[in-house]
Amino acid sequence: MTTPGQTTASSVEGTPPAWFQRALATPGESCRVNVRGCDIHYLRWGDRSRPGLAFIPPSGGHARWFAHVAPMFADQFHVLAIDPAGCGDSGRREAYSQDAINAEIFTALEHAGLFEAAVPPSLVGHSAGAQWVVRAAQAHGERLLGAIAIDGLRYTELDKDQAVKVLKAGPPAPRPARVYPSREEALARFRLAPPPLQPVGNDYIVDYIAAHSYRETDGGWVSKYDPAQVATIDLALELRDALKDLPCRGASLYAEHTHLAEADVAERMAVLNGPTVPVFIIPGTSHYPQIDQPFAFVAAIKGVVTGWIAAR
């Protein structure tokens, strides 16, 4: 017996399971919009009349981190997955800021028509993307139904959190992008960062993400990610009690095996944000729940957002 979302016999044999193939075959659109002089790319699925739901990847990630799960929301939502500047297939900026990310998110929502539905859109951000969506909601939450942070809000500094030292050190000094002589060598070097605290399995999902993480140049293959974009993230400890004060709804979902929190995170965050803000752990997950437990990831987010809609 296999756990939903975990590696199946067909994936072990080299063929991704049917659900994954159906998700990637779901009709959608690849769209672009100019935001403050930068070309911003996003993916879109679903009926424009339905409530909007927009996914924001982690720093170093891209929209296709959600391409296998986003279509599973399209029966109820108008779904976007956005590449912020410096990520995926979007352009790069000379300087990155939260204000620019806010503009990128809300311009993409407008361009795709998410504000035209009867219900305001919701944002979902993973890891550093969680910081971005909560700060975007602080600035413009009156235009949103809610913002969901996925394994991205710290309540303290933990020894197991490898990112603490990195973020305290500040943005790294600029250096030339590493060039791989072939696409195969680039894909072979792909790693999830930070490393998950448990094996994520589902290699077919990781392989798909890796396949969209590099671009060809004259000299070989390089990462699509601009490392300078890390200037937009920090420990964000001031956000630990911010959800209760947003102009929209807020929620924070955590991985069971996360470097950001301990097992009592729901209790700690409830003390900080009160009983009306949903905070819970998605069982069986690492820091990458959309990879190791995609069905649980979808169910958790659907549960939160449909609950908000029902309570309007």
Number of separate domains: 1
CATH C-level category: Alpha Beta
State the share of residues found in helices, binned by percent. Answer: 25-40%
Order of helices and strands: HHEEEEHEHEHHHEEEHEHH
Q: Label the structural class.
A: alpha/beta
Strand runs, count: 10
**Based on CA inertia axes, which overall geometry fits?**
globular
Strand order of the largest sheet: 1-2-4-3-5-6-9-10
The named CATH superfamily: Alpha/Beta hydrolase fold, catalytic domain
Rounded Rg: 18 Å
Please identify, by name, the CATH architecture: 3-Layer(aba) Sandwich
Overall pLDDT confidence: 94
Question: Can you tell me about this structure?
Answer:
The protein has ten helices and ten strands. A hairpin with a 2-residue loop joins strand 7 (about 215) and strand 8 (about 220-225). It has about 300 residues and is an alpha/beta fold. Mean pLDDT is about 95; it is low at about 1-10. Helix 3 (about 100-110) packs across helix 4. The longest helix has 17 residues, at about 295-310. It has one domain (about 25-170, about 230-310): 3-Layer(aba) Sandwich (Rossmann fold), CATH 3.40.50.1820. The strands form two sheets. The chain has an eight-stranded mixed beta sheet, with helices on both faces. Strands 7-8 form a two-stranded antiparallel ribbon. Pfam families: Abhydrolase_6 (PF12697). Keywords: Hydrolase.
